[in-house]
């Protein structure tokens, strides 16, 4: 048994101030398999992998790590890399002002007579890009890449060293369907070449597609390790959440009559300065009080551009008209948008969402200061009370609201951002990929909260790439392709086929 294990982590305990992230986790991985690691937000998945990869050095945790039967005590990440362990972290960590090639070889640039050998670096970078299946020049600066391509560059970077164990922490949360396909095929390929892979994901279809076995963590403990063949989705969900969660989307009473119109776009177009081309063409849409409107479409269809320009956060010039409750308004900045009662929860936590140096509480109240009685001088006790309430409702797993937001697990950071906008009580709340990286149990809570908001008259726009999610929660779905709206589907008549045919422009 031991002979076939490439990795054995035994009784790992890791504590942070006020939080026991891992309380005795054991984790065994067989050589050459794709092993999925699953569990709810805050279960300890990323922490376990950071212990493995030397981010938390030997001595800051207890328990033992064996790689190919040999006990290892990594002092840092390069020790772990030397032992053949590469990890792609949950939050992208590229330097945006450097080129793709520079990012891939950062700290390990090929040299020729003590100088960086740019030609060889470029050549090897291009090779790696080829291997991950993207066709972009490695001289391009990372800041010009979309989030999907940045993720592929991270993978190329991890493949640079000869890894025996490749760890991917939620690698597909930002990828489009076709990029996910490329990645899945790549992992299966690597497996055939003998690479062992540890795969963290909240997406069950991926797990069932590529994993050989699954380990379930809950509250810092190992629940079980199972072969994928012995499981189905419901069993896996129940093991993760520790209760029976048979329903993925909460029921909601949909009213027959539409509420009053809160938002209307007439002939709305958007010109992108950077690319100097039109990204949105003559969009007409309306949104009603108490409605959940979904916006579906493939990556690049213009969904994020639409909602971010509505929020005044897009570097471009818009044409056409925006009406809020019947009055024409101009929105040139997020401040304008907030004044009109629009809130946006973005898909890109790191760049637009969280303030990494601030505490959980500060992150929650930051858009919110003028909403709390007492104004100017914010009453701390009031803030505390509200924060505690949302931490509670959203089931955010924290030590204390005074801790830095970066101490939270990825999914829990997302919940803090959601809390921020809920506190502001917007008229229109836009959620762009709201449940990306969020576990099944918490998704259910978030859907419940959205439902409660619309019951109170808020109008909600949800942009999501997860078709079952859009179909599960929205009253009406608009489908976008190439910067235009190509179709409208009502909740009752929504099918994946119908939405996809509008999204890819099939014959219908
Ligand atoms: N640097 C840190 N300081 C303090 N607490 C931390 C730190 N890193 C993680 N934690 C806590 O440890 C617990 C486990 O977090 P971890 O990031 O491992 O969860 P996860 O399973 O990866 O969740 P997710 O699915 O949301 O990414 C959480 O309660 C988290 O708040
Ligand atoms: Mg994580």
Automatic annotation (TrEMBL):
It comes from the Bacteria. InterPro entries: AAA+_ATPase, ABC_carbohydrate_import_ATPase, ABC_transporter-like_ATP-bd, ABC_transporter-like_CS, P-loop_NTPase. Gene3D superfamilies: P-loop containing nucleotide triphosphate hydrolases. Keywords: ATP-binding, Cell membrane, Membrane, Nucleotide-binding, Repeat, Sugar transport, Translocase, Transport. PROSITE patterns: ABC_TRANSPORTER_1, ABC_TRANSPORTER_2. It is found in: Cell inner membrane; Cell membrane. SUPFAM superfamilies: P-loop containing nucleoside triphosphate hydrolases. Pfam families: ABC_tran. Residues 7-244, 265-507 form the ABC transporter domain. GO terms for molecular function: ATP binding; ATP hydrolysis activity. One of its GO terms (cellular component) is plasma membrane. It is a peripheral membrane protein. GO terms for biological process: monosaccharide transmembrane transport. PANTHER family: CARBOHYDRATE TRANSPORT ATP-BINDING PROTEIN MG119-RELATED, XYLOSE IMPORT ATP-BINDING PROTEIN XYLG. This is Sugar ABC transporter ATP-binding protein.
